[in-house]
Every structure is written in structure tokens, then in C-alpha cells.
Amino acid sequence: MADLTLTADQEAEAQRLAEIIAQKAKEEALRIARLLVSKADHELLGATEFEVRDRVHAIGVYALETALRERKKWGYQGSSTACPHCGDSARFVEYRPKGFVSLLGELRLSRGYYHCGHCGHGHFPWDATLRLSPQRLTPGAQEVVCLAGIQESFGKAAERTLWKLAGLRLSESTGERATEAAGTRLGERLQAGAVFGQRQAWDWNRDARGQSCAYVSLDATGILMQGPAAAKAEGHSRAEISARKAREWERTATLTFQKTPR
Ligand SMILES: [Zn+2]
């Protein structure tokens, strides 16, 4: 983490937050210490590492929750604000609590709720500011959930990979919906001409007519499987990869290819 330059007010606020977080850190340190002294030498590592990680995450999620709670306004924008659905005036109703999954685990926060009498929709301005997803994921959690979601089936990502690698426990459908939503946003940005990373001039190959050309191959159809006793078997369809996910891959690859510079 880079050294930060804070104003005097920010430094005072940081000191105050640190006091609050330190209490939690002390509790968790004691939990970790009790866990560790209870283990025999051969149990000190392995499963214990995962338990220690959970306790360390608990300190982190408490820090996030505390910082969010101490912001006070919680997305309050006055007694009324513009409705994002119809542009009419939406009035403040109340603060509503909700749980979200962050990179460090579950956190709960209260957000100002506004209701529009004209179109009947409600909205939470703070959810948009904090970039919380409809799947109740924070941006950090979204990033790792979507990364896992494009590596393997949503079921395995949810049951095994996210839990083991990141300590996150969430349902298969949450992972699926978050990954598909990210794929859709990516597709929309690519279609709008967005370029990710540095612009680059490519030295394309030329075909017989002097036209620049490139080849792209994509396999989203089958996976080779072994039969009983290692016998040769037909390729199976990727039953675990939903057809929707495969289509998303194809769409993204096609869009990427179309937007590649000539
Ligand atoms: Zn409205």
C-alpha cells in the first residue's frame, strides 16, 4: 500500500477509525492465538491456514463496515432527488439495511431509500455510488467472482474455487448472474468502441491480394473425455458450461476480433 498524504482532518478521522478497528483486531487476534495453541505441530498448517484467513478477513470486513457506517450520510441526498427511471422527483423514505458480499466476507449497511410517486420505482443512490451489484456483491467481490466464473463452471466456482481461493461463499446462481452481467457490460463497451489497454499498431500478415488478414479459432463446443479403463470416448458437450456462457464467450471473442486494429 502506498504511503498516503492526508489532511489534518483526515488524519484525525483515521486515528479515530483505527481505535475502533483495533478493538476488533484484538478480539480476532485472541481467537487466532487460541486456535493456534490448540493445534498439534502437524495441524498448525493446512486446514488451520484457512481458519486463520477467515479471522483475518473478519478484521478487514469490520474495517470496511466501520468506514461505511462512519460516512454518516449513507447516500442521503436531501428530502428528494431525481428519479433515475423517469427523471421526476423521488422523495426520501427511510434508511434500509441490507447485506452484501465483499471480498472480505459479508457486510451489512444502511442506505437511504427514495421512492418516486410518478413511476412507482424506488432507488438507493448509495448503491450506485458504491457500485454495489444487483447480486449483492461489492466491486471487489464482483471482480473475483467473474474471474472464477469464466474459468470453469459456475457450480464449481461457487462450491470450491471461490471458497478455497478467496474465502467467499456464495450460490452458483449469484456467480452466474454476476458473470453474465459483466459479460454483457463488456460486450456493450466493446460495441461502443472502447479499447482496453494501450492502443497498439499490429503488423498484420498479408494474403495473396495484399489484404491484411488474421485468423481466429474458438472452441466452445466439446471437451475430450476418457471412457472406462482409459478407453477412447466421444467428445462430450460441455454440459457444465451453460449454453448461455458459451454464447457469451463467442460474442466477446467476435467483438474483440472486430475491434482489433488493422
Ligand atoms: Zn420515477
Task: List strands and helices in order, with pairings.
Blueprint: H1 8-37, H2 47-69, E1 80-82, E2 89-102, E3 105-116, E4 122-123, H3 125-129, H4 139-149, H5 154-166, H6 172-191, E5 205-206, E6 212-213, E7 222-223, E8 236-237, H7 243-259
Antiparallel strand pairs: 1-2, 2-3, 3-4, 5-6, 7-8
Helix pairs in contact: 1-2, 4-5, 4-6, 5-6, 6-7
The protein binds zinc ion.
Summarize the structure.
With 262 residues, the protein is of the alpha+beta class. 45% of the residues lie in helices and 15% in strands.
Which tags fit this structure?
262 residues, alpha+beta, 3 domains, four-stranded antiparallel beta sheet, two-stranded antiparallel ribbon, 7 helices, 8 strands, binds zinc ion
Helix-strand makeup class: alpha+beta
Strand order of the largest sheet: 1-2-3-4
Largest sheet: 4 strands, antiparallel
What is the arithmetic mean of pLDDT?
Answer: 86
User: How far from one another are the termini?
Assistant: 39 Å
Low-confidence stretches: 236-240, 255-262
Helix count? Answer: 7
Mass-distribution shape: extended
Structurally, the number of domains stands at 3
What is the helix content?
40-55%
The molecules bound to the chains, other than polymers, are: zinc ion
Q: What Rg do the Cα atoms give? A: 25 Å
Along the chain, the helix and strand elements come as: HHEEEEHHHHEEEEH
Strand content: 5-15%
